[in-house]
Amino acid sequence: MPLELIPILALVAMFVAATLLPINMGTLGFVAAFLVGTLAVGMNTDDIIAGFPSDLFLTLVGVTYLFAIAQNNGTVDLMVRGALHFVRGRVAFIPWVMFGITAVLTALGALGPAAVAIIAPIALTFARQYRINALLMGMMVIHGAQAGGFSPISIYGVTVNNIAAKAGLVNSPLTLFLGSLFFNAGIGILLFVFLGGRRLIGRNIHDTHDDTHDDAPTTPDGTGGPAPSAPRSPSGTPVFSGHGTNASAATLVAPPNSPTSPLPRQPVSFNQVLTLVGLGALALFSLILDLDIGFVSMTVAAVLALASPQAQKGAVAQISWSTVLLIGGVLTFVGVLQEAGSVEWVGNGVASIGMPLLVALLLCYLGAIVSAFASSVAILGATIPLAVPLLLAGEIGPVGVIVALAIASTIVDVSPFSTNGALVLANAQGVDRDVFYRQILKYSAIVVAIGPLIAWAVLVVPGWL
Q1: Which of 9, 26, 88, 166 could form a disulfide with 255 if both were Cys (CB 3.0 to 4.6 A apart)?
Q2: Tens of pLDDT along 154-187?
Q3: Where is the sequence biased in composition, kind Basic and acidic residues (predicted)?
């Protein structure tokens, strides 16, 4: 057996084990890096540890710590409140508000699943109360997370740009960000058109509220007759539960100062203002001054923690340690994979096919299919290095291929087997869960079948021509 094949087989075994068993693939990555590196490749432990992505570690810890504080002190709720006040009760805009606010959260550095976990319960509560298609609302939240997910200061964006830079590839962080943004926005438009969005135009939340009754039945998919209103407190204010929601969430869509709104505007606290300034500083110093996002986010988080120790209580425990472990383990193993020559071996084998367009398409489908069941970040960490020899050959535009691979590997997060899809399924209200599950499954199958092809046709083919 060729030496280069051993790490590849270990990588396949990691994906299979992490898919079938409840174990973090990062753990398997560290173990595989140690065993394969020492026993098969002949590396010492210092060489293996040198492959650990310390810069990404700092970025992940700093950004997720910062957003944990922002969530704890109510800044995220404030952002949602402001966005919903902006639409002044127009029901047709509510799905787009959910798309936009989730995109902003991920663009500023929040992890996609974290943003979906915060916004999905609120969005699906609105879907039930205002008779909006639950599938439309849930998928708009997920695609919103992906739309902002590749900004230069986001986790996905930093990961992809870091991998491309280390491989010596020509890359454009702005193209990566805008490519994902417009691609997911285009999907959002199609969802809005085909899942009942046109019927929402012209409707107002008060019109819908007047037509709903607590005992009114709903159709299995939440798109039929009047949906029952949310549970109400003794004062008549809707009450909501679930991660990322609060007792006044549903009333946020009422126009500001509306006489029929049961919720007056809440004052903005000093901590929230300071957090918003900190998020702006993060974008300014990271994007314009090109300072390291990990150090900047950690600095902003430290300032917020010092300014209000109570607001940051528990924030360290909310750091996405599972994602830190995942990325650290997988990319450490990728270093062993590269040291063994496996990446170059596979790349040369793929290049020998002589059809770079076909190879790029196959890589897009590989990333999409595996990512529908496994971590998108892990897939990006594995598929982009596999494409490096093909891209260095210069027969096809590297920027287009990188963006296409990034999009193909993340748009499939709508799958009910992924974290995002599972969050939407778990937070659906007023629907038949089995029917809704099948709807998500059918939609994710369409995305897996068509999404990579469209990304390849739009982004890769023009670069080859």
Answers
A1: 88
A2: 888 988 888 888 878 888 899 999 999 999 999 9
A3: 206-216
